[in-house]
Amino acid sequence: MKLILLGAPGAGKGTVAKLLTKIDGSVQISTGDILRGAVAAGTELGKQAQAAMKAGDLVSDDLIMGIMEERLQEDDCKSGYLLDGFPRTIPQAEALKALLEKMGEKLDAAVEIDVPRDVILDRLTTRRTCESCGAIYNTKSNPTKVEGVCDKCGGAAIQREDETEEAISNRLNVYNDQTAPLVGFYENEGLLLSVDATSSQSVIDAIQAKIG
Ligand code: AMP
Question: Which residue out of 36, 123, 127, 128 is catalytically annotated?
């Protein structure tokens, strides 16, 4: 499967991607995870991305395309990929289209996961992420056994710097302004798949019904 998962922060793209990787062996590619890894490692890429990420703004299209051109040519992408958090702007979508044409590849669909803003705000302010292994928790629906400690690896389960109310509100505005127009872009491309976003399972069922 070669899919784009489109949706606001907190819509469940990452959860759906993780479940799909187990079903068909595609890899999840999250530009957010790649960037957070670069920030944690203190690389040049991380330094360039850090300020924008902390504020909930987008990092530059050039930086993102540099990452993705390399990533999409790695061997593990041959069995399919789930793009989680990319593309996020029309220029990124256009650059991705040109890149895939050059590589002789075609996407199966751009899946639109549309979740109401109040649900997203509640989900993100209560989300906790393990600093070490990236596992996701929620203080209400899926808390860690010991507060602040990851069940899987014992790392620190923290609130991300960009998950304060102020940064979340900015991320949602950025999504509406810069990323939501991709729905129209992929509709024109004949690739848009709008799904029932009630649960991750309903999203997966809709994808499997369409793509198999
Ligand atoms: P995410 O985990 O997908 O919400 O991404 C966290 C942050 O990383 C975003 O708020 C942006 O600052 C940055 N980011 C991730 N993916 C992209 C992208 N495709 N384009 C620009 N910035 C991105």
Answer: 127
Question: Is it true that the peptide bond before 87 is cis, omega within 30 degrees of 0?
Answer: yes
**What pLDDT is recorded for position 182?**
98
**Which listed residue (2, 36, 88, 123) is catalytic?**
88
In whole angstroms, give the CA distance from residue 32 to residue 188: 26
Cα–ligand 1 centroid distance for 3 (angstroms): 18
pLDDT at residue number 48: 96
Known active-site residue 13: yes
Report d(CA 171, CA 65) in Å as an integer. 20
Q: Is 117 a catalytic residue?
A: no
Map the chain to HEC letters: CEEEEECCCCCCHHHHHHHHHHHHCCEEEEHHHHHHHHHHHCCHHHHHHHHHHHHCCCCCHHHHHHHHHHHCCCHHHHHCEEEECCCCCHHHHHHHHHHHHHHCCCCCEEEECCCCHHHHHHHHHCEEEECCCCCEEECCCECCCECCECCCCCCEEECCHHHCHHHHHHHHHHHHHHHCHHHHHHHHCCCEEECCCCCHHHHHHHHHHHHC
pLDDT < 50 positions in the chain: none
103 CA distance to ligand 1 middle (Å): 24
The predicted pLDDT at position 211 comes to: 86
pLDDT of residue 162: 87
